[in-house]
Every structure is written in structure tokens, then in C-alpha cells.
Amino acid sequence: MRFFIMLLFAAGWSFDLRADSLQIGEKASYDIQVARTPHDLAKGLMFVRTLPENEGMLFDLRGYPKTAMWMKNTYIALDMLFIGCDFYIVDIYENAEPLSLRKIKSKRDFCYVLEINGGQVQKRHIALGDKIVWQKKSS
What gap in Å lies between CA 131 and CA 19, rounded to an integer? Predict the structure, then answer.
């Protein structure tokens, strides 16, 4: 059975001082919130109207094989980076359409999805095979 994830978080959502950081090779660095709980995975960035260029959300989907993403109640275009358990980008979906109910799937197995502002993949030259380094902040 497929587990469908609603993309995006609550109105007024912003990062706190404990936000993790994520580096994509030498190309880009993002402050991220990590969605792990079923509630956070379902809520994601829902209802967010703006997202700073250097911020994003990482969905930890280990344990949820065959997950599909969608843009229900998501007001901003997003680029979605599907990341393997080895922290390399295995698939990319660019400029997901706001408010769309279309299911967005990866062609390859993955453990994480990073959502960033639409257009960042092209602007930063992010590509399949780029290495991800996740720097976790202490709680």
C-alpha cells in the first residue's frame, strides 16, 4: 500500500535555532527542518506562502517505501530532490505545481526527499548523483 504525503507545513512556519543544515556538494547549502513523525510528514510545508531561498524541508521517509508526494494546500512551487539512503540524489522533480493533487514519484528507491523553492535546481546546477551532507544540530 502506498503512503501518500501531503507536502508543506503550517502558516507562520519558520525555522528555529535548532534547524539542521544540508550541503549539496559545493553547489548549495540549506537550513532545514526535518519531518519524521507521521503528523509532520503529512503536514510538511502546507499553507506556507513564502520560503526563504536558503531554507527547505527534509522528509525522512525511511520505513515508508513507495511513497508519493503531492502539492495539496501548497502555495509555492517546489523542487523535490529524492535522496538515496547513501545520501546521493537519485531523482529530481522540478517546479512542482502549487495546489496540484498529482502524485509525484521517484523512478528510483529513496529514503529522503528535500523540498526547496522551485527553480533552485536549475539556478544552483543541482544534478543526479550530487552528494548530500546532512549536518545535524544538537537538540
Answer: 20
First-residue to last-residue Cα distance in the chain: 34
Collapse the DSSP code of 19 into the 3-class scheme (helix H, G, I; strand E, B; otherwise coil) and give the result: coil
58: part of which helix (H) or strand (E)?
Answer: strand 55-60
Q: What are phi and psi of 99, to 5 degrees?
A: 70, 5
| pLDDT (tens digit per residue) in 3-48 | 444 333 333 444 344 589 999 999 999 999 999 999 999 999 999 9
pLDDT digits (tens, 9 = 90+) for 67-102: 999 999 999 999 999 999 999 999 999 999 999 999
CATH superfamily assigned to domain 4-135: Protein of unknown function DUF192 (2.60.120.1140)
Output the furthest CA–CA distance in the chain (Å, rounded).
38
**Taking the model in full, what pTM does it have?**
0.86
Q: Where are the domains of the chain?
A: 4-135
d(CA 123, CA 78): 13
